[in-house]
Amino acid sequence: MKFTRAIESLKPEGAFVVLAKAKDLESQGKEIIHLEIGQPDFPTPAHIVSSAKKSLDKSWTHGYTPSLGVIELRKAIAKDLSERRGVSFGHDEIIVCPGAKPALMATVLALVEPGTKLLYPDPGFPSYHSLSSFVNAQGVGIPLLEKNDFSFDLNFLEKEIKGASLLILNSPANPTGGILKKEDLKIIANLCIENNVAVLSDEVYSRMCYDEDHVSIVTIPGMKERTVLIDGFSKTYAMTGWRAGYAAADKSLIDKLGLFMNNNTSCVNGMTQAACISAIEESQDPSEMMIQEFKERRTLIVDGLNKVPGFSCRNPGGAFYAFPNIKNTNISGKAISDHMLNKGVALLPGEDFGKYGEGYIRLSYANSRENISKAIDILIEEVPKISR
Ligand SMILES: Cc1ncc(COP(=O)(O)O)c(C=O)c1O
Fold first, then answer.
1. CA 114: distance to chain centroid?
2. Domain end (from 281, 306, 334)
3. 131: CA distance to ligand 1 center in Å?
4. Is the model's pLDDT at 14 over the cut of 90?
5. For ligand 1, is residue 171 a contact (CB within 6 Å)?
6. 348-349 and 198-202 as β-strands: parallel, antiparallel, unpaired?
């Protein structure tokens, strides 16, 4: 068989590759501390699981649901978004998807013509680059600068934005944990309005902002009409395996995304949608406790990483990733990641997230304090032994 250019251009997410290697080692009896994969180590809250179970008895899984999602969930999302972002969304401006990832893909397919520029953060979530190649766009990584706490290099953005079809933002960010400040968002918004560029704002870590409130670009005047806001249930409610996320945007675009989903997945299963309604409408205490715990672990991991010879780590403002600078070790991220996996700690090289990720590694602190401390001890012992 001859494969298409599009399918040949897709790249795997590094986290899944290292996870597979780690699982392989585990099957051979080796103990691995998983700091590679970005998923909460907490169980899905019991009341959410219980709603899913009840939905089975009510036969919610019997049939297809509307491709845009059940109206009760779309209304719940619209209300939640309006309350949390302070911008009013109607339920007809929401589509439910099997995760934030499919919403990303549908949006890129809907808004980016081949050959046009697609701008995304670098280092950034690997799907952005992969999707850009998939649709044959001219992908341009906009550097996130460590000296600005991993906010955009705005001069670079200003030079590249002309003629772009879409700019992807991600705040709080994977892999840096960086947050786009309101002042920067205003500058970015002006550039998008002046150059008539649409924005995909990936806000899957919006609830994990530790030192300040989350600000969405959608709140800036003139931006709601040009922004696709994507959020999900995976991170906020420890529901990665349930596969549920959503996009909020102008109804005209949501209807197009609905057509795509109709031809692709048909719909998200009814049981998951019932669980999502209860996630939004019922107690937020389990999520808030989980987020508070991530905040404590952030201090533990950042302090620990700063003790590793040659590492320096900033305090990430959000998400659950630490992204230490390893340039002073003169060892590549890949060499550290390979060595550490053999020593029982799975983590990711920064270069997996783009060329500006070189000289960094990513560690997810969605793991217990005990495991984080153990991993730090192993890093302190092992990094000086890795050959340069
Ligand atoms: C920035 C970012 N966007 C989207 C996703 C995908 O989330 P979901 O599980 O909702 O598809 C992830 C998952 O790691 C992510 O880090």
1. 24
2. 281
3. 14
4. no
5. no
6. unpaired
